């Protein structure tokens, strides 16, 4: 297939675009800055809000994978820009796909659309976002549904939970697991900001990539939404304890109770639907990944000292 990947230079895109290329697809990257290092068939520099640029990039494509996004940690700083990129950008990508005769459209969405709902959430859980990011992504989902119903464009929404894993360049990220690991690899305990009991559904980027490749290769009903997660909860306390145990630091994590003190729901993905349609099950465990990451990144001197002790 000839596949356009918007946001191909972002975190998920820099993994997914080369993966699709390696699977034999002709991949066209789209983003504000060119990334020739990804080795794609072509790259289109443009703004995701620009319909003309997206329509030109979508020409002769069989599928569009829409990853372009204003990240959640930036959305509250400028909610208007967040709306323009996440909601308007998705609408423009859908309009371009329809105009170009694209057969399939995949949208990367987020569990943030569930808002304050807690516990095990299936795809029919009412959407009640409590952040600008969640609202804008919920709007993007609604546009996908409308284009499926009104115009017959085949759409699939992948609603992704908390992604973990290093960057495609091998760096630790600024996400919570990346910050905790950076701390312990520097010889200090991690700091938990807020309630240590707050828990998340952490899913490895490799499992997310597999969900996308399966969705592209499978004959799915149009308009389908699929949760992509691990199907279990991990608390910040557990994550911090694993990082400490892996690094050999005999100390408790620091807790900054003043930060992010408002209660956050602990929510995890019901995977019944994605298991039924794609045969998907997560394969990479967070705890195992934490220990393997510490071992691979600790200096030989530290590893030798731990072995001797």
Q: Compute the number of structural domains.
A: 2
**In terms of per-residue confidence, which ranges show pLDDT below 50 for 5 or more consecutive residues?**
none
Main sheet summary: 7 strands, parallel
Distance separating the two termini = 55 Å
- Give the SSE string: EHEEHEHHEEHEEHEEEHEEHEEHHH
The global form is globular
Structural class computed from helices and strand pairing = alpha/beta
Calculate Rg over CA atoms. Answer: 20 Å
Taking strands numbered 1, 2, ... along the chain, how are they ordered across the largest sheet? Answer: 3-2-1-4-5-7-12
Strand content of the residues, in percent? 15-25%
Q: How many distinct helices? A: 11
- Helix content estimate: 40-55%
CATH topology of the largest domain: Rossmann fold
Name the average pLDDT.
93
Task: Please report the first level of CATH classification, the CATH class of the largest domain.
Answer: Alpha Beta
Structure summary, number of beta strands: 15
CATH architecture of the largest domain: 3-Layer(aba) Sandwich
Please, what is the CATH homologous superfamily of the largest domain?
A: NAD(P)-binding Rossmann-like Domain
């Amino acid at each position: 297939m000839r596949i356009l990947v918007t946001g191909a230079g972002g975190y998920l895109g820099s993994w997914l675009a080369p993966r699709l290329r390696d699977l034999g697809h002709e991949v066209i990257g789209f983003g504000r800055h060119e990334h020739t290092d990804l080795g794609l068939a072509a790259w289109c520099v443009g703004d995701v809000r620009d319909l003309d640029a997206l329509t030109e990039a979508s020409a002769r494509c069989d599928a569009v994978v829409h990853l372009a996004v204003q990240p959640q940690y930036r959305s509250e700083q400028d909610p208007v820009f967040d709306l323009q990129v996440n909601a308007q950008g998705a609408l423009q990508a859908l309009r371009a796909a329809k105009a170009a005769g694209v057969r399939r459209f995949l949208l990367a969405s987020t569990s943030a659309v569930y808002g304050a709902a807690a516990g095990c959430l299936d795809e029919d859980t009412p959407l009640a976002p409590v952040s600008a990011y969640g609202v804008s992504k919920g709007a993007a989902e609604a546009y996908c549904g409308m284009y499926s119903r009104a115009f017959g464009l085949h759409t699939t929404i992948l609603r992704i939970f908390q992604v973990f894993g290093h960057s495609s360049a091998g760096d630790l990220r600024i996400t919570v697991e990346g910050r905790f690991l950076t701390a312990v690899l520097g010889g200090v305990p991690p700091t938990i900001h807020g309630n240590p009991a707050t828990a998340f559904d952490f899913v490895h980027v490799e499992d997310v990539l597999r969900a996308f490749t399966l969705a592209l290769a499978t004959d799915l009903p149009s308009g389908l939404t699929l949760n992509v997660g691990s199907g279990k909860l991990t608390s910040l306390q557990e994550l911090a304890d694993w990082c400490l145990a892996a690094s050999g630091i005999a100390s408790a994590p620091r807790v900054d109770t003043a930060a992010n003190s408002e209660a956050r729901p602990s929510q995890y993905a019901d995977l019944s639907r994605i298991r039924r349609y794609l045969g998907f099950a997560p394969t990479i465990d967070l705890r195992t990944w934490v220990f393997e990451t510490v071992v691979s990144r600790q200096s030989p001197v530290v590893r030798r000292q731990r072995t001797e002790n």
